[in-house]
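1st attempt posting a full record on here, be nice pls
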Amino acid sequence: MTSAAGPAAPRPDSAAPPRVLTVAGSDSGGGAGIQADLKTMLALGTHGMSVLTAVTAQNSLGVQGAWPLPGEAIRAQFRSVVDDIGVQAVKTGMLGTAATVETVAELLAGVAAPVVVDPVGVSKHGDRLLAADAVHAVRSVLLPAATVVTPNLDEVAQLTGVRVTAESDLRAAAEAVLAYGPRWALIKGGHLPGGDAVDLLTDGSTEHWLRAPRNPNRHTHGTGCTLASALACGLARGAELPAAARAAKEYVTGALAAGFPLGTGIGPVHHGYRI
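the predicted structure (as tokens):
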């Protein structure tokens, strides 16, 4: 832009916000997956970047199709971002196949930043998002690379065989998950009955119980992706894990309360509710 006084002076570069990378699948409906991750990262003041692992056809009614990307494409995206821009936290979501899990675990081995693993196994609508033969790969190579893993109760059962039916079972679930090698486990108890939504964060020696009033809003699509991404944002900002988890829980609780109807099924949480 120019004026009578000549061209405008260039603005000095401002400091870059913390950089967070999501490695996950796309949700064409915009409520979960890469889309939810990037919205969360923007809402929490970080710079979100993405490595796409799969494309899904998805809406408020469920997942109509899923197509994994080849390992070459995943590696190229990851190296492009990490080698040039760098990352201060990484979050993984839908990986889908054993080959993708192994590729991502190999890439994470060369990253010093904290890693949040959301072991996406089943969608909100009950659609399977992790192949049966990929479960072993998650246990054997992905969980050992995790700073923290954030399974819901269905994913705990899928990974460990432990069935959680009451708050008192969360400790056993965490122990079973930690046995596979992550430094911390955040077991999400949102599907349990009761007045509060209760999560347990533990490294096996210290415990942090995260509680929030249960919200009756049925529009909850994307809660798991959103929590893991919010947790990664806190870690990228330098927060200790317990503080990052409490802040993530607070953000997700507000986003869930503000969830809105979209389409004819389950709507998404509202990532921009604070704006």
